[in-house]
Amino acid sequence: MRPLPLRQTLLEWYARYGRRLPWRETRDPYRIWVSEIILQQTRIAQGTDYYLRFVERFPDIASLAAASEDQVLKQWQGLGYYSRARNLYRAAQRLAEQFDGQFPRSYHQIRSLPGIGDYTAAAICSIAYRMPYAVLDGNVYRVLSRYFDLDTPIDTTAGKKLFTRLADEQLDRDRPGDYNQALMDFGALQCTPSLPECPRCPLRPHCRAQAAGSVALRPAKSKRSEPSPRYLHYFHIVSPEGTWVRRRTEDDIWRGLYEFPRIETPDDLPAEQMLSDARYAALIRSASTAEVLETLPPVKHLLSHRVLHIRFYRVSIPTPGFSLEGYAPATEEDLSHLAFPRPLAAYLERSAR
């Protein structure tokens, strides 16, 4: 595709308006990597504080690799998409074992690390090492699809191939890191998903979607299915032994995080019906003194592919001797060091007030 005056315009815009962010003050590949993983599913306003706390707690590969998974997940708590934290931890351990605690300078070696895909590998290589690899994220898709007025859906195989080739063709090979960051910032600040600043856009004279009146239609996407619902009932059981929790080990949401005893139902079940259900009776069968102190209104929690409808029940068992297979009692001190999914962490915070 014939190059238009894109690169120089973006670099000039970036010099004036680019965001000043803490990970842009370094070319340390470790810190660039951490920032990119955090920002995969997190807005910069929230991610910046998490990044600063994370690199303060784990300032380098060695400190991250030497930590326990629980410590890493606890530091990550609240960010969601916890597989990112687990992969960071696994990758740090591999770097410590196979690369003497140093980040490799090869795209393919970086790409082979757990949790690092094409985008993250390209970002690390271009920003830390000034290697000519183009990044492709939502901002880049949006800017390129509007600039060239492309109607190929970006979430199809054909779309990914087209935009990968186009991003590589447009890359500034002398300043790949600056160009990639300029393109991402331009999409985040100027060429936004809704209400883009078209009247004041420096690319306006050459923007084909602007000329065609199709800015609002770009980027094109194929239809996506609606996220499916799940109905979870969590029982905050407190006995003289402590609060009963377990670590999730299933290959499912929130793997590696802690949770209360849980019952999942195929449909929404009101609290009154759940408390008279045989499954609840089986849960507390060894505790004749169990008393439900509180039931909370349902909470809705959105994931990328699921809508979770969560109910919480606070259950007191005043007599000792309660046991629950697969769960263990935790003290208040224990709870403060365990990583819980965001809805459960919010519930615990509310309960502590």
TrEMBL record:
One of its GO terms (molecular function) is metal ion binding. Adenine glycosylase active on G-A mispairs. MutY also corrects error-prone DNA synthesis past GO lesions which are due to the oxidatively damaged form of guanine: 7,8-dihydro-8-oxoguanine (8-oxo-dGTP). Keywords: 4Fe-4S, DNA damage, DNA repair, Glycosidase, Hydrolase, Iron, Iron-sulfur, Metal-binding. Transmembrane segments: none annotated. InterPro entries: A/G_AdeGlyc_MutY, DNA_glycosylase, Endonuclease-III-like_CS2, HhH-GPD_domain, HhH_base_excis_C, HhH_motif, MIG/MutY, MutY_C. Pfam families: HHH, HhH-GPD, NUDIX_4. Residues 38-189 form the HhH-GPD domain. Its cofactor is [4Fe-4S] cluster. It catalyses: Hydrolyzes free adenine bases from 7,8-dihydro-8-oxoguanine:adenine mismatched double-stranded DNA, leaving an apurinic site. Belongs to the Nth/MutY family. The keyword DNA repair applies. This is Adenine DNA glycosylase. One of its GO terms (biological process) is base-excision repair. It is an enzyme of class 3 (hydrolase). SMART domains: ENDO3c. Binds 1 [4Fe-4S] cluster. The keyword S-adenosyl-L-methionine does not apply. Its EC number is 3.2.2.31.
